[in-house]
Model the fold of this input.
Amino acid sequence: MTKVVLRPNESQDSLLRRFRKKVIRNRVMTEVRKRRWYMSPSQQRRLAKKKAIRRMKRRQRRQGQ
Done:
């Protein structure tokens, strides 16, 4: 759980800014988006395989240039 403590003489805006940065750094929102809908293990494997193939194709294109 991401937690931010108000510093002395700190405005609410800067507190919120620090909180957002921490959330992004801890990848909380990506995890929330990922878990928003249930995905069966077979679907997860299929998606991971597609991503790996896409990654390999991109790497091959970059090396060919």
Summary: Residues 12-64 form one domain.
